Amino acid sequence: MNYRHAYHAGNFADCMKHALLVSLLSSFLRKPSPFVVLDTHAGIGRYDLEGTEAEKTQEWRSGIGLLEQEGPESPLAPWLELVKKAGLPHRYPGSPMLASFMLRPQDQLICCEKHPEDKRVLYGLFTRTPNVFVHERDGYEALRALLPPKDAKRGLVLIDPPFEQTDEFKRLVEAVQTIRTRFPTGVIAIWYPIKHRTPVRTFLTALQDAGVRDMLTAELLMAPPTDPDRLNGSGLLVIKPPFGFAEQAEAQLARLKTVLGAHDYSVTQISPE
Ligand code: SAM
């Protein structure tokens, strides 16, 4: 539990993950029936871009720092509007805050954060938001406890672990199987790092071999994935992507590639519906 997201908030990987998250959540707004978002590894919800952690790495400068001038016609605009609402250029919203902005009264956000100090900060952010619930608990264990959602038939499970453990990809394969059993209609989004291709390929193949259908990957590479000691890129695996998401992801990643000066991007359906 050494990982602190405050050092990385607003970097290229966050920009990719959060822009795509907003697109996924937008699709739930097309229908009036309630939806639930389960954010299993939630972090502190909002990050200080002027704090000591952000100052130390300056990672946000080559991420959100390059996107402040995007106009309303940009495919990134719906996400950037929420980032500004959270306090850009001083503060940057994490996944719980972005999701909370998109909830209607009938929807719910459930956050799990294992680090007690981070949970305390996150809890403080939502004391006046009645449909956001914050748990101090293991996000993987929460899948069994909190799914299927009690109050909605639709939902998104976001899994964004720190990848400190060497068996994280293996745990993710088990997590997908648990979610599919307990909440088969749920949309699943899993963030993963791309250092070298091999662990990512092994992860995705394990899911294909387990018969998981309707999987799409959206990836942004800042450099060729050949140096295993470097975060060369990042990906979002989406299981049961909503209608139109692939096209939105394509447009968003193309724009991120241009503005962030990335090496490459891709959106790929890796198993059929
Ligand atoms: N999803 C957040 C966002 O986009 O703003 C960032 C999450 S950060 C990458 C991962 C978080 O998971 C850290 O805050 C860490 O303390 C927490 N964490 C680590 N292991 C966990 C576990 N087993 N269950 C729940 N949270 C965990």
UniProtKB/TrEMBL annotation:
| Domain of life assignment | Bacteria
- Taking the record's annotation, the residue ranges forming a coiled coil are none
Signal as a keyword?
no
User: Which positions are annotated as binding S-adenosyl-L-methionine?
Assistant: H18, H41, S95, E113, D138, G139, D160
List the GO biological process terms: rRNA base methylation
**EC numbers, comma separated:** 2.1.1.266
Cite the InterPro entries for this sequence. RlmJ, SAM-dependent_MTases_sf
* UniProt-recorded Gene Ontology molecular function terms: 23S rRNA (adenine(2030)-N(6))-methyltransferase activity; RNA binding
Keywords (alphabetical) are: Methyltransferase, RNA-binding, rRNA processing, S-adenosyl-L-methionine, Transferase
Q: Any idea which residues are catalytic in this one? A: D160 (proton acceptor)
Note the site residues: Interaction with substrate rRNA: Y3
Role this protein plays: Specifically methylates the adenine in position 2030 of 23S rRNA.
Similarity comment: family membership: Belongs to the RlmJ family.
Report what the protein is called.
Answer: Ribosomal RNA large subunit methyltransferase J
Q: What is the lineage of its organism?
A: Bacteria, Pseudomonadati, Pseudomonadota, Alphaproteobacteria, Acetobacterales
Q: Which gene encodes it?
A: rlmJ
